[in-house]
Amino acid sequence: MAKVTIKDVAKQAHVAVSTVSYVLNNSKSVKPETRERILKVIEETGYFPNHVARSLKTKKTQTMGVIVPDIGNIFFVEIIEGIEAYLSQRGYSVILCNTNENQEKERNYLSVLLNKDIDGLIFLATSKNPEIPQNTTIPVVIVDRKFSGNYSSVLVDNVLGGQIATEHLIERNHENVALLTGPLTISPYFDRMMGYRQALEKHGFEYLPFLVEQCGTATYDGGYQGLHRLLDRLSEPPKSIFAANDMMALGAMRALFERGVSIPKQTAIVGYDDIPTASIMTPALTTIRQPKFEMGQKAAEMLFNELQNSADSQSYLFQPSLIVRETG
Amino acid sequence: MAKVTIKDVAKQAHVAVSTVSYVLNNSKSVKPETRERILKVIEETGYFPNHVARSLKTKKTQTMGVIVPDIGNIFFVEIIEGIEAYLSQRGYSVILCNTNENQEKERNYLSVLLNKDIDGLIFLATSKNPEIPQNTTIPVVIVDRKFSGNYSSVLVDNVLGGQIATEHLIERNHENVALLTGPLTISPYFDRMMGYRQALEKHGFEYLPFLVEQCGTATYDGGYQGLHRLLDRLSEPPKSIFAANDMMALGAMRALFERGVSIPKQTAIVGYDDIPTASIMTPALTTIRQPKFEMGQKAAEMLFNELQNSADSQSYLFQPSLIVRETG
DNA sequence: TTGAAAGCGATACCAG
DNA sequence: CTGGTATCGCTTTCAA
């Protein structure tokens, strides 16, 4: 069963390869009869065009690259789902690269991908902000990170999100909301903190540094330990906590549980991201939702458009929203 | 900045393209001086070999396809991580295809991928067992599904897993353990049930159909509803439950919580999979761990070997293990 | 050790 | 409407 090529088809249909190509791509009008004849041969032989050869000629591979920091993180996964949904529908495949929060892997992927066979790149950067090689010839869109350079990007308004979360807490509890944050060098965490401060200010509260705890990593463990530290230095638990992502919130909840402080009675808590686990917990976590799937879709769409219409790079900003559940 | 090709390099280095190719691939000995000269030109021009052209010639694309039923399911994601870890280290990229538990998408991907530019395929099948097109010329390894046909596969001993879980419960509670299972048409669930029955038998218990509840979907909701149904028809909660996956177990826990039955005091529960959320819950879920990452790695390794040594297709069976936590 | 040239499997231009 | 052919960028055989 040697692979059948366009040549074989041409021969069997008694036409030139170019003619076969025309019917394959509908790129030129072909007399119905010949078209039929060719189609029949294709059918019979089970011919299937060779993508690689086609790509060599057209300079288009019909595949996009996606670089993510951690595919174990459901937040990114939902974005990927959005990307995939959009792209697969238009005949694109996606090459997935997991950097595992490892800068070297990231750098490596960046150079491999950019020089390999992808038509475009969607880039979800690792914690520390990296540089994109300058010699890029393909469009790239950045998701969820502010970046210098002329790239498209899709962002969520993290300042607003931080504000909404904090205000919600203030309105329900009227005082001292603590902040449990990830590394402030990561733009989303920085922005959420800004939102927190703005909400405080707006309601006439002072920003109290001893109420904010920065976790080394924005993870369950990070949140767990961070909250223990916070509780250790406070005379009593804060009335409420804004955790800058759900995983930290979950870790914080465990810490609270272990210390015997009841949620939300003694201290309320709101998270950020709305990951699936948040709604499964008992009590279920109140949180800020980011339209992750839509973000992925949008990123894919922007990339697609840049490719089709060589549209200019642009930015798109999504709005987060509050999901009230049981913790605050 | 027009793309520089091997031709350009050859020209600037005053050699033939073949010579450049030789140094690129280390495929023939080249006089050190010429090699240096060529390398220098490559450096200066920033030349990077075109993968597509190379693939066309070599018939190898250095990319593998991976088809998964649901990338939102952490179980599959950890397998993917294993695959990625292994493959990326040997210079392979992976094209990820998410079928979303949709058979048509799956069929579609199967035919696209198999005819496109991948060197091998790792296939995690959707719930319903599909057929792999017969005209496959590339190696395929199946993960976590029994399949007819001459494909490699990596499996976990689900019968054993079901047995371990059930025995653990029996040994701690000594009686009537209920089974909350997913569709029995899916081989892993079928096997776990067999393990359950064997454990029962081994300990002299009768298999009681009214103690087993089959959920429409093996999800949180499925488990939640399934358990409510089970409780509805029983005069009192079973002493223990073996839930055939963690998501169902979590749903069951919520149902139990809502009915005011305490875990594990009144009814103990053990899940299956050991997903991250399982350990985060309060109480933390006792469960059966599957070596997901290793499974992915192994699958990748088998594929890799089939490619390298044209090794024969084979099967590999992993052992599950019990993780005792707080629910049982 | 090096080079010329064939060819991988398609696309698309230019003639007819 | 159809065909011949150059070409995409590389690998590899064969000869020098």
From TrEMBL, chains A, B:
TM spans (from-to): none
Origin superkingdom: Bacteria
Residues in HTH lacI-type domain copies: 4-58
Keyword Transcription regulation listed: yes
Keywords from the named record: DNA-binding, Repressor, Transcription, Transcription regulation
Gene3D superfamilies hit by this protein: 3.40.50.2300, lambda repressor-like DNA-binding domains
Database matches in SMART domains: HTH_LACI (SM00354)
Keyword set includes Signal: no
UniProt-recorded Gene Ontology molecular function terms: DNA-binding transcription factor activity; transcription cis-regulatory region binding
Domain HTH cro/C1-type intervals: 2-48
InterPro entries named among the record's database cross-references: Cro/C1-type_HTH, HTH_LacI, Lambda_DNA-bd_dom_sf, Peripla_BP/Lac1_sug-bd_dom, Peripla_BP_I
PROSITE patterns: HTH_CROC1, HTH_LACI_2
Protein name (database record): LacI family DNA-binding transcriptional regulator
Organism phylogeny: Bacteria, Bacillati, Bacillota, Clostridia, Christensenellales
